[in-house]
């Protein structure tokens, strides 16, 4: 057993032997939270934790056992300082000159395919492994209509929330990814889902979206933005409350006998 798996197993053993609550439901009315890539894997060392408990995970990959009925997809956010000042907002749709944008490391089959198809090949779909000198990542997000969010080695990416902050319509390119808060948010209303096999057709797909449809999506991105805000002191409907609400919804489905 891996050292981290052993730590998790030992922890569950301690709380289950000291307290009666875990054993009453075999962990079904308990939750754990992890945004690390290893989070889903470490839970597999404890069957009750993996199969019964509510797992709040950034890497919400159905191919790795993520169960939307009992698990919670956690929005991944990369904040260098913990402050979102300057990251939110952006120009109006009419002032966004780039159709689609992505910049990020080359890891995972999906990103490899995206780079092969689009890196340096189109003036409307700008795909970079590394931004050219003088270009700002945040300004590129804010000047793009659509922001490409391909999975890397793991399905989750902070680019989804970065796009929402920049009021850029996120384009989700993944296999098996369950977007955060899908039980209450209609992602089809404010994002675009592109199958991996359709990566060569990204420009065609995005160009087929009418101006009126894009404006509706952009407006809805602004509306849902508050649900992804990370505040020092939680505010109503922000990220903290959305996570707690998602956990609460799943707890409602659990009946624990006295």
UniProtKB/TrEMBL annotation:
<feature type="domain" description="Exostosin GT47">
    <location>
        <begin position="8"/>
        <end position="209"/>
    </location>
</feature>
<protein>
    <submittedName>
        <fullName>Glycosyltransferase</fullName>
    </submittedName>
</protein>
<keyword id="KW-0735">Signal-anchor</keyword>
<dbReference type="GO" id="GO:0000139">
    <property type="term" value="C:Golgi membrane"/>
</dbReference>
<keyword id="KW-0808">Transferase</keyword>
<comment type="similarity">
    <text>Belongs to the glycosyltransferase 47 family.</text>
</comment>
<dbReference type="GO" id="GO:0016757">
    <property type="term" value="F:glycosyltransferase activity"/>
</dbReference>
<dbReference type="InterPro" id="IPR004263">
    <property type="entry name" value="Exostosin"/>
</dbReference>
<keyword id="KW-0333">Golgi apparatus</keyword>
<keyword id="KW-0328">Glycosyltransferase</keyword>
<dbReference type="Pfam" id="PF03016">
    <property type="entry name" value="Exostosin_GT47"/>
</dbReference>
<dbReference type="InterPro" id="IPR040911">
    <property type="entry name" value="Exostosin_GT47"/>
</dbReference>
<keyword id="KW-0812">Transmembrane</keyword>
